Amino acid sequence: MKRIAVVPGSFDPVTLGHLDVIERAARIFDELHVLVVHNPDKSALLPMPQRVSLLERSIADGGLPDNIVVAQWNVGLLVDYCTDVGASVLVKGIRSQVDVAYETPMAIMNRSLAGVETVFLLPDPAHAHVSSSLVRQVAALGGDVSPYVPQVVATFLQEG
Fold first, then answer.
1. Name one GO cellular component term (predicted).
2. What is the pLDDT of residues 109-155, one digit of tens each?
3. 18 has binding-site annotation
């Protein structure tokens, strides 16, 4: 039986921490869907098609495994997407206790709604402090984000 998992996120923009989690999850599962989702609690910097494009290019440029599918989902429940593609696991990167507190109720709800389990992966310590929101702030103030994001994202943010 094929083990399929989903890594959801807003990826606004994708960071090296995201790619670290994606790469490690792709080694664990037979097929990994990296799903760009709309988060109603966040105000997006980049439109969804741009986030998808930057994510696809970052994965290709990073030489990540070829079992990764990039998709987007902006309507319905995340577990509906999981059911549609046959995924039984969600993978979430956890940087701190704040992330654990935020993600735990959702993990329990997703298991209750559709039997979808959630696996938490800890970040590489080099990326534990990096978030998309911090990258957006640094970029907006003219700072160098290249240590925190794939080159294609750094170039895009510097030109934008």
1. cytoplasm
2. 999 999 999 999 998 999 999 999 999 999 999 999 999 999 999 99
3. yes
